[in-house]
Design brief:
The chain is α/β, with parallel strands linked by helices. The protein contains ten helices and 14 strands. A six-stranded parallel beta sheet has the order 5-2-1-6-7-8, sandwiched between helices. It has a six-stranded mixed beta sheet with strand order 10-9-11-14-13-12. Strand 13 and strand 14 form a beta hairpin. Helix 4 crosses helix 7, helix 4 crosses helix 8 and helix 4 packs across helix 10. Bound molecules: adenosine-2'-5'-diphosphate.
């Protein structure tokens, strides 16, 4: 049993952590919810208990004898406090982008590269990838094994939950204002997205970088190859859409071998945590309303290119707060316990 901290417990992902840890019956001795000084004294529910939120400090990990710390409070918070947690003897599972490309920090999707978890000791930190990357690599892994992927073109349709609770609130506020015929005023009050998000799509997530690519797009490029230990060419276009919490992706893969739709369906359906929904004759395909509140990556609209034998197209959807964040982190922690747990407890507590 482990002492577990959630850093950012009052946020959208933090709240999902509480639900996922409970559902997975995570072996918890003590749960400590942490957030900024603003939230001290706020309460969160876990199982039948009400827990008081504590302030995140460098000392709290030692004081509370934390063994596993889930971080989801932004990159600057992880930069400052994840090393404190690791120093205090905890394994950090970090949901931000801060450590993801650090060569001494494994970047893990347990269905794809569980073997990398054993590198955690270098810094005491395991990074949780970007949400769009997680659901994409889960669907790429079985196809790569079967057909050998050389290149991926992907367009994302990303939910507002990726921008945290404030992002979700901004969409809801704008929808409400729209139905009251007051959208103009609310749009001027926008804080999170660069343009109106209600009834709009915005082809811009995170900062613009060199060459006109956004940082979100470059995360998908770099993280995909770190996780898959590959050299695949990846060309993403990341787009924010007015959906609350599941991301969708239209993906095209260019392969070494000739592709087959039947084989693709088979290897996808047999892969861990994927559900294939692909019955066009019944209008059945993946959508955010199907994926939300579940732990699966849904794949469908699988079809061969009209021109090239080695090119396959498909669509995938997964819940950003769960598969793209909390569930992946909890799955990392469970795998870590399986691989390292016994030795860790023996080292730390002598038992
Ligand atoms: P707080 O509610 O006290 O601001 P979201 O991603 O939904 O916006 O949530 C962000 C989470 O990160 C919240 O729990 C928030 O706590 C927490 N957080 C943000 N800044 C800090 C900080 N400087 N120290 C500790 N927690 C922080």
């Amino acid at each position: 049993m482990y002492n577990v901290a959630i850093v950012g417990a009052t946020g959208a992902v933090g709240e999902e952590f509480l639900r996922v840890l409970e559902e997975y019956n995570f072996p918890i001795k003590k749960l400590v919810p942490l957030a900024s000084a603003r939230s001290v004294g706020k309460e969160v529910e876990f199982k039948d208990k009400t827990l008081k939120v504590k302030e995140l400090t460098c000392e709290v990990f030692e004081e509370e004898e934390i063994d596993i710390a889930f971080f989801s409070a932004g990159g600057s918070v992880s930069a400052k406090f994840a090393p404190c947690a690791a120093e205090a003897g905890a394994v950090v599972i970090d949901n931000t982008s801060y450590f993801r490309m650090d060569p001494d920090v494994p970047l893990v999707v347990p269905e794809v590269n569980p073997e990398d978890i054993k590198l955690w000791k270098k810094k005491g930190i395991i990074a949780n990838p970007n949400c769009s990357t997680i659901q994409m690599v889960i669907s790429l892994a079985p196809l790569h094994k079967e057909f050998g992927i050389k290149r991926v073109d992907v367009a994302t349709y990303q939910a507002v939950s990726g921008a945290g609770k404030k992002g979700m609130e901004e969409l809801i506020e704008q929808m409400r204002a729209l139905f009251n015929f007051k959208l103009d005023k609310k749009v001027e009050e926008r804080e999170v997205f660069p343009w109106q998000i209600a009834l709009n799509v915005i082809p811009h997530i995170d900062k613009f970088m060199d060459g006109g690519w956004t940082r979100e797009e470059l995360k998908m490029v770099n993280e995909t190859n770190k996780i898959m230990h590959s050299n695949i060419e990846v060309a993403p276009t990341c787009v924010r859409v007015p959906v609350l919490r599941s991301h969708s992706e239209a993906i095209t893969i260019y392969c070494e071998k000739e592709v087959s739709v039947e084989k693709a369906r088979e290897v996808l359906a047999n892969f861990e945590d994927i559900k294939v929904i692909d019955n066009p004759e019944k209008n059945e395909y993946p959508m955010p309303v199907i994926a939300t509140d579940t732990d699966y990556v849904y794949v469908g609209r699988i079809r061969k290119d009209l021109y090239e034998d080695n090119v396959l197209h498909f669509f995938n959807v997964a819940d950003q707060l769960r598969v793209g964040a909390a569930t992946n982190a909890v799955r990392i922690a469970l795998k870590w316990i399986e691989i390292e747990g016994e030795a860790f407890l023996k080292d730390k507590y002598g038992k």
